[in-house]
Every structure is written in C-alpha cells, then in structure tokens.
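Data availability (excerpt). The following record was deposited with the supplementary files.
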Amino acid sequence: MRVTTTQMYDNLLAGVNKQLAIQAKGNEQISSGTRFQRPADAGLDYKTSLDLRHAQVGVTGSLDAAKTAESRLGASQTMLNSMQNIMVRAQSLAVQQGSAGLTAAERSSAALEVGHLLTQFANDVNQKWKGQSLFAGTAVDKQAFTIDSSGKYAYTGSSQDRVVAISDTLQVTSNIRGDAPSFSAAFTALQDFETALKANDTAGVTAALGGLNTAGSGMIDLTSEVGGRLSALQVTRTSFEDMKFTLDKQINEHEAVDVPAVVARLQQSSIALQASYSQISQVKSLSLINFLR
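Predicted structure:
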C-alpha cells in the first residue's frame, strides 16, 4: 500500500501530539509532586486517595478537638494550682494568727493580706481562656462568680459542662464548673478568716482554719481531677497523632511521583519530539520539491 506524504505528515503530527502530552503530564507531575491530579489520570488510585484524605480530615479534626480540650483543661489546671497556693498561704496565716499573744494591729495587717488573697482567688476563678470564662460552664461570656447583695461571692455561671466531641464515639468534658462545692467553700473560708482577723477574734481565727483546711483539700481534689483528665487526653492525642502520621505516610506513598523516572521519561520524550520535528521538516521539504516538479 502506498503511503502518501499527507499520511506521513499526519502520523508524525500524531506522534508529536503524543510526546507533547507526555511532556505536559510529566511537568505537571513534577510540579505537583503527585502521580495524578484528576480521576481521568488514574481512576482507582484517585478513589483510593479520596478515601485516604477523607480519613485524614477526620483524624485531623479529632486531633484539633483533643488539643482544644487539652489546652482548656491545662489553663484550668494552672488557675487551680494558683488557687491551691492561695489556700496554702491562708492556712499558714491562720496557724500564725491563731496565737493568743498577737495584737489587734498584727491581725489587722494580716487581714490586709487575706483581702489580697481573696481578690486573687476571685480573679483566678473568673479567669478567661481565649476570651471565654474558664469556670462558668457553657456561660462563657459571664464571670463565674460575682459578689451578691450580702457581700458574698455567688456562682453566676451555667450548670452545663463544656463537652468536646473528639470523635463519633468519644466525648470529653473540658472544663471544671465554679458551682463545684470547693469554690464556694474556699470563698466562705477566706471571708470568714478575714472577718475574724479584722475583729481580732482569736476563736474565730481558729475556727476559720478548719474551713480553710477543708476548702484547701477540695481544691487539691479538683486539681487532681483535672490532672487525670489531662493525662487521659494526652494519651488520646498521641493516638490520633500516630494515626495522622500513618495516614500522611500512606497518602505520600500512594500519590508521590517517582521524579527520577519522570525526568528520564521526559528526556526520552524530548529526543522523540525533536526527531519528529526533524522528520516533519523533511516531509515538508519533500512535498515542496514534488510540488515544484
């Protein structure tokens, strides 16, 4: 069968287009770092990538939620530690001020320090985390405690906890509410202690020590509770970090392009492309000669 010049030209042109497609795909793979960018490139592989990335999104969301809960509880623990230290200092003062030999002036001076401790305790319990009240439950825009008409500190937050959904099957409580009895007990003990000092009431100071000790123990219990939750959350976070690492590795191994192989293919394609261009030029020259004849 006779092959015409036109057929030769069409075949060469088809070869050029094929090499150009190889060049475009190779350059795209190198720039993106992946073997495929769309379903048409690799249908089943693309579907597998979608499944892996969907799982990756879920794990990343769970990891972010765990970190949020951990951060909030960590801030709560910091404040509880501060409140615990306040109670320890108040207890120490109560032991000192319980001595019958102290003067009214000395107790009055101690009352000033207790007043500062009380203010600091109120500041700690009304502390905010990222602009949200730590100890007011879900009432994040309110202070946990305010002073009522009788001069006592009263809880003004909500009765609901802040629950974080780590996954479809795991939810964690990420806060300590101010309506836990230990907070009110601490306020009452500190105020009673301050009142007794101002009145130079030795018996009242001694009585206040019992309340301070009880409230202090309650603050220790709350701090330990938060510590336990944090420990559990750290285990959960580590688990999700491991899952994310595994998924990231799987995605990379599944999608990553073999750059040296692509570069070699591009080089071969470039040689073939140059050869096609050369042949096309020869065919054009041959066609011109035949025309002139």
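Summary of structural features: The helical segments are 5-32, 43-97, 104-125, 181-198, 202-255, 259-292.
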